[in-house]
Amino acid sequence: MDKPATLDQLRDAIGQASESLTPRARAAAQYALEHPNDIALQPVAAVAQASGIAASAFIRMAQSLGFSGYGELQRLFLAPLQRAAAPSFRERIRHFGGELAIEDPSDPTEVLRAFSQANMVSLEHLRDDAASLDLDRAIRLIRQARLVHVLGLRRSYAVAAYLAYALNRVGRPSVQITGLGGAIAEQAGAVGPRDLLIAISFPPYAADTLQVCEQVQRAGAKRLAITDGVLSPVARGAELVLAVNDAGLLGFRSLTSAMCLAQTLAMGLAFRDRRGGQTGALDDIDC
In percent, how much of the chain has pLDDT > 70? Predict the structure, then answer.
């Protein structure tokens, strides 16, 4: 394996190597992606103590990815920090308060203020991470597909429903896999080798979503994953992974970043297809 030279290459390498990593090395990789500043600034012993993962797992993970050891991996994380240290999503949420304590959760006004703040943190992180998302490739995958199938269950259902609706509104034939009546495998059976499955799932990942991903992969269809990272089981085997994160509040998860990404894909397709270059060209779409 060629040694990654940038953090983007490292994310790709971790995604490609995820199945060959041991569970402990995979956990170390997940921690590294979620806490880049910790890896950049802390010795392996301190990172092991903070994460609850053995130091040897971080060392083996680094070596599995082509590095001589933890020190060389650490220098990769340190380089962008020396240029301009933007906090990671996990660090933003940690600063925000994570699962924020609300003095009176029965007060809907207080809950609204707290949830609004959590949503703003999520969107700020998405904005700052926009350059790392290969949106052009995502749009090409959608445009080249004979038919787009959109799947999102549980809390991801709303995002999938909107994306399927919006894609149809901008002229891209799309269907939503809902599993209505327990027929999810039968619905997924309609996915052909010239089609694209957009699978949307976040922790805890819906088991039916993972099963459909495996089913359409066997059918030879391409897959675009919208999930929380390259180590997500939904990302395994996907042509492209768009990683987004949303904040949580008292057990409820925001959908703002995932929904914003869905809107971006639909709008990107609309402008690509119409080539108008003017927002007025989209007035009739009503997305």
Answer: 86
Residue 271 has pLDDT above 80, yes or no: yes
Q: The CATH number of the domain where 27 resides is what?
A: 1.10.10.10
Contact assessment for residue 237 and residue 212, using Cβ atoms and an 8 Å cutoff: no
148 to 5, 23, 172, 255, 258: CA distances (angstroms): 34, 33, 8, 22, 18
Q: Which residue has the higher pLDDT, 240 or 247?
A: 240
- Within 10 angstroms of residue 273's Cβ, the number of other Cβ atoms is 13
Helix (H, G, I), strand (E, B) or coil at 186: helix
- Which pair of structure tokens corresponds to residue 88? 């990671």
Is the domain of 235 the same as that of 165? yes
Q: Are residues 222 and 145 in the same domain?
A: yes
Q: Which of 54-58, 99-103, 180-184 has the lowest mean pLDDT?
A: 99-103
Owner of token pair 């699978």: 199
Name the residue type at position 214.
E
Apex 195 CA angle, 191 and 192, nearest 5: 40
Pairing of strands 248-249, 222-227: unpaired
pLDDT at residue 94 is higher than 50? no
52-72 CB burial, b ≥16 within 10 A, e <16? ebebebbbbbbebbebeebee
pLDDT at 233 over 60: yes
CA distances from 105 to 108, 111, 112, 114, 248 (A): 7, 6, 10, 10, 14
Q: Are 162 and 237 within one domain?
A: yes
**What backbone torsions phi and psi does residue 69 show, to the nearest 5 degrees?**
175, -170
- Would you say residue 75 has pLDDT above 80? yes
CB of 129 closer than 8 Å to CB of 253: no
